[in-house]
Amino acid sequence: MTTPAREVAPAKLNLALHVRGKLPNGRHAIETVFAFCADGDGLSAQAAAAISLEISGPFAAELGDREDNLAMRAARALAETADVSAGAALTLDKRLPVAAGIGSGSADSAAALRLLTSLWQIDPHHAERVAPELGSDVPACLLGLPMRGEGAGDQLSPIDLSDLSGTSVLLVNPRVQLSTAEVFARWDGEDRGPLGDWREGRNDLEQTAMALVPQIKAVLAWLGTRPGGTFPRMSGSGASCFALFDTEGARDAAALAVPREWWRLPTFLR
Question: Residue 217 catalytic?
Fold first, then answer.
């Protein structure tokens, strides 16, 4: 039996996220800066007669029907688009919380597209065509590189974040799932202006998310008091938050102090 091919499905961060209005198709127009972490879920793929998915890991139980999992949907969509009759045995190690604003499902979907493009030896353009159909964050997760996102977040342009590569970052989640659709539906409709430098930006969904999950306010306040920490913000539609750290030691000290009831991930920016 051949050794399965493996990919990290890295956690996605929105360093800033401005909501500018509504698009003609009803989705929200945003401006955001995507960055990616060194760690996340793990996905492996091996040649098989049919497409299948096994799930393990600390957050496996929080996923619903595996047949509707984003990695499975990505595999099926790619096979149909590329007219592939081969199968693949996928195994997902679910280490990122679900519905958490860090793109865990989108990252899994993107990892499946990358793995199967290689396994099936097909043109990568098939994955690029399929990605937007799977979710607004999937195109950015497929690339896994710093990007500025506009439109619904799927109109991408490269952004130079080389000064951040290797920066220590701590992700914290209060272990509460939060619906992206509900957060956007409750956005107050006020355009607070364009996104320039992400450092001077904000996340326009924070207040709405806090109204739904008050623990987010406590997480952000806690991150804001950590020695060596900077830019405490919520990622995406929440409820995960993050802070960048001057040193790995400062980050690790903060990680050790995270309240026991919260999830944490000390990692680095790619």
Answer: no
pLDDT tens digits for range 92-133? 999 999 999 999 999 999 999 999 999 999 999 999 999 999
Half-sphere exposure of 12 (CA within 13 A, CB side): 39
C-alpha distances (whole Å) from 149 to each of 17, 35, 68, 69, 160 are 9, 11, 26, 24, 13
Catalytic residue among 39, 41, 93, 137: 137
Active site residue 94: no
pTM of the model as a whole: 0.95
Q: What is the mean pLDDT of residues 129-158?
A: 97
Catalytic residue, from 12, 41, 93, 94: name it: 12
- Is the bond preceding residue 239 a cis peptide, omega within 30 degrees? yes
Other Cβ atoms within 10 Å of 86 Cβ, number: 16
